[in-house]
Amino acid sequence: MGGRTVVVGGGIGGLAAAIGLRRIGWEVTVVERARVLADVGAGISLQANGIRALDVLGVGEAVRAAARPQYTGGTRAPGGGWLARMDGAVLERELGTPIVGIPRAVLHRLLREALPPECLVTGVEVLSVDCSDPGRVRVPVEERLLDADLVVAADGVSSRLRGQLFPGHPGPVYSGSTVLRAITEHPVPLRTDFELTWGKGAEFGHIAFTDGRAEWHAVLNSPPGTRYSDALAAMRRRFGGWHDPIPALLDATRPDAVLHHDIHELATPLPTFTAGRIALLGDAAHAMTPNLGQGACQALEDAATLAAALATEPTVESALTRYDAARRPRSQSVARAARQAGRMGQQLTHPLAVALRNTGLRLAPSGVTVRAILRHANWAPPSLR
Q1: Which of 307, 257, 260 is nearest to 279 (CA)?
Q2: Pick from 324, 323, 292, 291: which is nearest to 309 by CA?
Q3: Least buried of 19, 205, 276, 305, by fewest C-beta within 10 Å?
Q4: Residue-wise pLDDT tens for the chain (385 aa)?
């Protein structure tokens, strides 16, 4: 089965879906509202499930070559003591690939390079689609209508198309946390590939990259919409007394490099990821908190699964039924687990609760951390044939 599809949204999930659909012979147009098609986020960790999805899509090797494996690190307290260590070598033996860290902009570029430039349309926002004909979907793009056999709604947490398809759904809600992040301007000496540090209502973490630079992020309990006149200075005040290398990471950052976003999620699960000939994908379908590092990985799983369903099912309708059955239970389960991880991790503020959590982590056998990661990362991708 082949056909014509319009992918609404040129982020990681949308580009991955476009790559997968082209691999199975579909004609694809990606429509992105931004004029410059580039992900300006900071850094990202990809676990084995995300890497396996990229392998199915044919871009796994390119991503591995640009990424830094995460073999060392774990979770610490603000004074520097270890709460739990991560053994990346064990994870690699179990899963066949390590967790890797990569700048989001690099990952986005590699996905773009896997697509011909002519299939990318930028600077156009799709506000709605015409679903009146059950056999096709019409998508307004600039001053023309594109006829599509399938539309992939990958337009993010604030998806316009999700709002059209599910007008009674409450949509995204504020998680209670806000995140500031940046990539350092120059290399920083680091002893680990990846770390998280948990304090009271706050988390600071870093991801090391191949060129010696690093991404850092700070997650804070905060009222929505809180902003700082000098975000970097605010982070120095909040985290300057925490263990090394946190002060060094902040010192290596330009003030104008700090990004600040409130974290929203779909706390109310969608009843389905499909409607007619439209499939929701990534944050549009299951926006989750970042506490498990699974948001992008789940979007990549969506892309591989959708392509496999369309490659092997006889009709678009049966393929979307299969896609929904495969993706909705798993991604919504991961979203619930991410929310719970945030409540038990970064969002805890009561001193007794924090102390009990830290003691439990210190006393837990080393295999607990490995099993926690395997629970979500050990996913087998479907074949596109």
Answers
A1: 307
A2: 323
A3: 276
A4: 789 999 999 999 999 999 999 999 999 999 999 988 776 679 999 999 999 999 999 999 999 999 999 999 999 999 999 999 989 999 999 999 999 999 999 999 999 999 999 999 999 999 999 998 888 999 998 888 999 999 999 999 999 999 999 999 999 999 999 999 999 999 999 999 999 999 999 999 999 999 999 999 999 999 999 999 999 999 999 999 999 999 999 999 999 999 999 999 999 999 999 999 999 999 999 999 999 999 999 999 999 999 999 999 999 999 999 999 999 999 999 999 999 999 999 999 999 999 999 999 999 987 888 888 899 999 999 999 8
Q: Which of 240, 272, 265, 301 is nearest to 57 (CA)?
A: 301
Contact between 299 and 53 under an 8 Å Cβ cutoff? The reply is: no
- Confirm whether pTM is higher than 0.70: yes
Task: Bin 183: left if φ > 0, else alpha if -120 < ψ < 50, else beta.
Answer: beta
Q: Which amino acid is at 129?
A: V
Superfamily of domain 4-69+99-172+266-343: FAD/NAD(P)-binding domain (3.50.50.60)
Polymer length of the chain? 385
In this structure, what token pair is assigned to residue 214?
A: 């690093």
Phi, psi torsion values for 223, nearest 5 degrees: -65, 145
